[in-house]
Write a structure and sequence with these properties.
The complex is a heterodimer of chains A (276) and B (292).
Chain A (H helix, E strand, L loop, with lengths): L9 H12 L5 H14 L6 H15 L14 E6 L6 H14 L4 E6 L6 H12 L2 E3 L7 H14 L4 E6 L7 H17 L6 E7 L5 H13 L3 E5 L9 H9 L3 E5 L7 E3 L2 H8 L2
Helix pairs in contact in A: 1-2, 2-3, 4-5, 6-7, 8-9
Chain B lengths: L1 H11 L8 H17 L4 H17 L8 H17 L14 E6 L6 H16 L3 E6 L6 H12 L3 E2 L6 H15 L3 E6 L7 H14 L3 E7 L6 H12 L3 E5 L9 H9 L3 E5 L7 E3 L2 H9 L1
Parallel strand pairs in B: 1-4, 1-5, 2-3, 2-4, 5-6, 6-7
Antiparallel strand pairs in B: 7-8
Classes of the chains: A alpha/beta (276), B alpha/beta (292).
The structure holds guanosine-5'-triphosphate (GTP) (2 copies) and magnesium ion (2 copies).
One magnesium ion binds next to helix 5 of chain B.
């Protein structure tokens, strides 16, 4: 955490710059924040006023972040995507718990048919939350599981269908094509599906998160972000650049490994943590 | 790209045919941006730039290179110097089983690389590896390692116990009976700030005395790399680093931060999800990647 001295000066600006950079806010966004601060503050100004100014500048950059999407369709289909290991499967467990606590009927579809024990892992989450569960043979077509999950959700009167996908690096064309096929298959069943495409981003990830957001958005039309692992020391500052450049809101944050460890994204809490 | 940027900087500055204080200052600003965008830690970048500046100012320009090319050369050399060094070899015991303990943050690739290492050493040294399922927390973690073990035809030790240290002790006993000469402990991902979980690893280390502790780090990690690596190193004094998911397109600057802050060598890189996608670390390749 950065300690700011009493008055606004070049040292203060440097301390501020360090706080922004070490939060993974990135070069371009940090420079525009510092630029705003230079423009709107004066030398010798009280540091608490400057802090408030920085706070306001960053909050205004997060103006496109908002709560969860209204669930209007039935079933409301949520496709969960993202690179390897950043928390998709665990997030689905948390989302199932979240929606079931609201009294919704939830069905989970195991469309990661590739990774070792991915289906078993997700099945455990379905058991822990009491959600319905659809799976197929390992190495079967993920799009077919997505299809079956939708159909089963419809038949069983599910309010929410959560579809888990295999982690994949966004620079792998064949894997991104596979993801795009899952969306296409869902669209054939229902032109509005998937109603939500949640990109899970790991809060410890650096600037690569921006290219992840761009590439996954190009392939699957990301409608929301879940920022996982915010219970660590990473601040997830690259979210600000993503919000600015791409208009994608952060829906939830992950703050642990249990089913309760999911919260709605609160931009104020997020920005405050950058200065802690 | 950085070399292009530096070339154009030197073209527009006076005295472009030699290195001067002014054109070093401007070009190092570009290098600083490149390193920050590559996820090198802010403080590490500061120190790095200062070292390169000192060298550049002191250097006589004999070479047939333009000043821009020379700056790039210094940066590249300094990167390779820092990234390399330290032995990339894993301490294989002669006449006794070797124990490797994997550790790291959640989702970094420990389980996958436990299997990759087992397969790698079986090929390279004709080892008889045993993998140990010491992650008793993550749903289906044991299943995951067992599945990988089946794919490779490498045995996996697991037991239905609530104490990780006991599991590891029993695994070593099993390895003796089973004549396994390489034992790799797959542990649960954990936060460096989770005192209880870090203490679990400290207890395993004290009881088992692994010959090699490998910190498994995701190559796309950002500024937080220094905090996590420093803490894991402080608590466990690990022997080396495995940098995973290098088949992605992150610049991998965190590797420089980890190396600077812990002084420990990067031993392997993971280059894919398949179990043969592991390579010995090449500092030169990563240096080029970090510079973009
Ligand atoms: N501390 C913490 N750990 C988390 C969080 N979310 C997930 N994890 C952990 O991160 C690891 C990876 O989670 P998974 O849910 O398997 O990630 P994934 O994206 O499905 O992984 P792949 O399917 O292999 O791509 C597990 O150890 C989880 O417990 C979080 O918010 N905080
Ligand atoms: N593309 C790619 N994926 C990798 C690599 N290493 C691991 N993965 C993937 O990353 C994800 C997480 O790998 P795991 O081995 O489960 O990670 P872990 O550290 O054991 O996770 P926890 O036990 O939950 O902490 C899986 O989807 C792996 O297939 C790599 O080098 N390249
Ligand atoms: Mg998963
Ligand atoms: Mg694991």
């Amino acid at each position: 955490s950065i300690v700011f001295s009493g008055k606004m000066d070049e040292d203060t600006l440097e301390a501020l710059e360090e706080a922004l950079y070490t939060s993974d806010i990135g070069v371009k966004t940090t420079e525009s924040i510092i630029g705003e601060v230079r423009k709107r503050s004066s030398k010798g100004e009280d540091i608490n006023d400057v802090k408030k100014l920085v706070y306001d500048v960053i909050i205004s950059m997060l103006d496109k972040s908002s709560g969860p999407v209204q669930v209007t369709a039935k079933p409301h289909v949520i496709l969960v995507v993202g690179v390897n290991g950043n928390g998709k499967t665990t997030t689905i467990g948390k989302l199932a718990h979240y929606y079931m606590n609201m009294g919704k009927r939830v069905l989970i579809g195991a469309a990661d048919t590739f990774r070792a024990a991915a289906i078993e892992q997700l099945e455990e989450w379905a058991k822990r939350t009491g959600a319905d569960f659809i799976k197929n043979q390992p190495n079967s077509d993920p799009a077919a599981v997505a299809y079956d999950s939708y159909k089963a959700g419809e038949a069983r009167g599910a309010d929410i269908v959560l579809i888990d996908t295999a982690g994949r690096l966004h620079n792998k064309v064949n894997l991104m094509n596979e993801l795009e096929k899952i969306s296409r298959v869902l669209k054939k069943l229902n032109p509005d599906a998937p109603h939500e495409v949640l990109l899970v981003l790991d809060a410890t990830t650096g600037q690569n998160a921006l290219s992840q957001a761009k590439q996954f958005s190009r392939t699957s039309g990301v409608t929301g972000i879940v920022l996982s692992k915010l219970d660590g020391t990473a601040k997830g500052g690259v979210t600000i650049a993503i919000n600015q450049e791409m208009d994608i809101p952060v829906r939830f944050i992950g703050i642990g490994e249990k089913k309760e460890d999911l919260q709605l994204f609160d931009p104020e809490v997020f920005v405050r943590s950058i200065f802690e | 790209d950085l070399s292009g940027k530096l070339e154009s900087i030197f073209k527009t500055l006076k005295g472009q045919h030699r290195i001067s204080e002014e054109n070093i200052k401007v070009s190092l600003r570009e290098v600083r941006v490149a390193l920050l965008e590559a996820d090198v830690n802010y403080i590490v970048v500061k120190d790095f730039i200062n070292r390169v500046r000192d060298r550049a100012i002191g250097e006589k320009v004999f070479e047939k290179l333009t000043p821009g090319q020379l700056i790039i050369k210094f940066i590249h050399e300094e990167l390779v110097r820092v990234l390399g060094g330290g032995t990339a070899e894993v301490a294989m015991q002669k006449g006794a089983p070797t124990v490797i303990m994997m550790c790291g943050l959640q989702g970094s690739g420990k389980t996958t690389h436990t299997a990759k290492l087992a397969s790698y050493f079986r090929k390279k040294n004709k080892s008889r590896p045993l993998m140990v399922a010491a992650d008793i927390y993550r749903p289906a973690a044991i299943d995951q390692l067992k599945t990988l073990g089946k794919q490779l035809n490498i045995p996996v030790y697991s037991e239905d116990s609530k104490d990780v240290t006991t599991i590891c002790v029993n695994a070593l006993e099993f390895a003796k009976e089973n004549r396994n000469d390489l034992i790799i402990l797959d542990t649960a991902g954990r936060l460096h700030i989770d005192e209880e979980m870090m203490n679990e690893l400290i207890r395993v280390k004290e009881k088992i005395q692994p010959h090699e502790i490998l910190f498994v780090a995701d190559s796309m990690i950002g500024q937080d790399a220094v905090t996590t690596a420093a803490e894991f190193n402080e608590k466990l004094n690990f022997d080396g680093v495995i940098l995973t998911k290098m088949d992605g397109d992150s610049r991998g600057g965190a590797a420089l931060s980890i190396r600077e802050v812990t002084g420990k060598p990067i031993k392997f890189v993971g280059t894919g999800e398949k179990l043969d996608e592991i390579e010995v670390f090449h500092p030169d390749r990563l240096a080029q990647r970090i510079l973009g």
